[in-house]
Amino acid sequence: MQVKVLSVKNPFAYLILQGGKDVENRTWTTDYRGRLYIHASGDTLPYPDSDSAPPKILECNEDDIFRLYGDYVNTLDDYIDNLNDRYVEAGVPTGTKSEEEWCERIKERAELWLLKSQSIIGYVDLVDIIQNSSSPWSIDGQYHWILKNPTLLENPIRQVKGRLGLWNYNLP
Predict the structure, then answer these.
(1) Looking at the 3D structure of the chain, how many domains does it have?
(2) Are residues 80 and 27 in the same domain?
(3) Structural domain span for residue 30
(4) Which of 40, 103, 105, 114 is 20–30 Å from 168 (CA)?
C-alpha cells in the first residue's frame, strides 16, 4: 500500500507524535489532506535541546525569543522533561551524581537513545493548512499544517531515506 510521507527533523518528528506538537510549519502548502506518515530525518539524538528550536534561527536575543515564542520554548522544555522521565523509568542511566554526568552517560549509550532517525515512526491526520493558527507551535509567516490523531508506530520502519516535500512510500 502506497502512503504519503513527510520528513521532519528530530526532535520535531517525535514532538508531533508524542509531545503535543499539533502544527507543522512549512513555507509551502499542498492540496493533500488525510493520513500522513512522519519520517524522522536528521541525526539520531539522545534528547532534544531547546536551543535547537526554530526561534534561534530568527537571530533574536534570548529575551525576544521568550517574549515572542515563550509557549513554544516552554512546550519543548516540557517534552524534554518527560523524555528525561522515560530514561529514568527505564533505569538509564542510574547512579549519576549530577545532571551533567547523567547527560554524558546517556550520550555514551547510543543504543538506548529514544529519538531514532532515518525511520518512519508514526502517522497523523493532516486536516487543514492555514496561516493563522493559535497553537504555541505555530510560527508567524509560515503555513501551519494542522495535525490530529498522532499515532506512534510500535515498530518503526527503519533505514528509510527521507526526501523533500511530500513523498510516497510503499508500506511493507
Answers:
(1) 2
(2) no
(3) 1-45+115-172
(4) 114
